[in-house]
Amino acid sequence: MLLLDAVDVLTREQIDYAVIGAMAASIHGVVRASVDADAVLSLASQRAPDLEKMFVDAGFETELRVGDLEDPISALLQLTDSFRNRVDLLIGLRGLEMDAFSRAITVPFQGMSLRVIGPEDFVAMKVFAGGPKDLADAANTVSVAGTSLDVDLVKRLAKRYGRDAEENLRKVIAS
How much is the pTM? Predict the structure, then answer.
């Protein structure tokens, strides 16, 4: 699996990561299908070209996209393989607290361990993204987590992403 191969490279290079997106939604809420895997990296966006070179040297097909000043993602490294599997590695997500990596949880997956974004950070990221699927993922996570979710932490994290994220969180929690 392409994600596991990517995690091998990240681990070897000692780059912190956390799986996000549909795979994280499956861990924290409700299983939903997706054609790709996503992870956020603890890496300065200036190192994105070096990261791309590491993956090219490891035999991956890559495409590096660099965001502008308005983009909430500084850079995205897309990995693909001959089977059209895709992994998106997000670098420099605006608003993401670096402590998110220490709050990530380890889950077993196909004989390996994957680091998955913690539920509070996941909800905050989803209310920031704000699309219908994102808000559904956030609401499902809140519902499944119940009283184990640190709502005060989620509120603090959502505030880092801005007013819209705070408002979306209010709606999610109220539902």
Answer: 0.94
